[in-house]
Each structure stands twice: as C-alpha cells, then as structure tokens.
Amino acid sequence: MCCCCDDEGCECRPLGFLLGLPFAFLALLLSIVGVVIWIIGLPLSCICPCCFCITVVVEFALGLIKAPILIMKWFTSKIPC
C-alpha cells in the first residue's frame, strides 16, 4: 500500500508536485523580491506607522514570500492520485 492510496485519502501527490515545480521556482524568484521589499518596508513602517501605504506594501511582500508554498499546495490539491 503506497502513501497516496491509503484509506484516509490522498496525502502525497507526486505528479502534482512535479507539475508544480516550475511554477514554484518562478514564485521563489518573486519571493526573493518580496524579501527585499519586506526588508526595506519594515523599517519604514516602524519610522512612520501612520503611513498606511507602507503597511500594505509590507503585507504584499509577505504574500510574495509565502507564494511558493501556496502554489505547491494548490498544484498538489488539483492533481488526483
């Protein structure tokens, strides 16, 4: 019995993982951009907390940082066992 055909449902989906790798790589590059934006934006939001646009940019950067993991989860959920 393999790990993707057990009675509890499909837990590992190697095909979805392999299909998602190129997109996760692109998202990884975007997450590097997100890290740079986050490093620059975090001190700016501490200096001037009243500036709402800096906070939005920092939250967007955190979304970019999480993108590769979210993309891999999405791809593996869409491909059946």
Automatic annotation (TrEMBL):
InterPro entries named in the record: TAXIMIN_1/2 (IPR055283)
Keywords: Membrane, Transmembrane, Transmembrane helix
Membrane spanning residue stretches: 23-44, 51-75
Protein name from the UniProt record: Signaling peptide TAXIMIN 1-like
Organism per entry: Rhodamnia argentea
Upper classification of the organism: Eukaryota, Viridiplantae, Streptophyta, Embryophyta, Tracheophyta
Gene behind this protein: LOC115756634
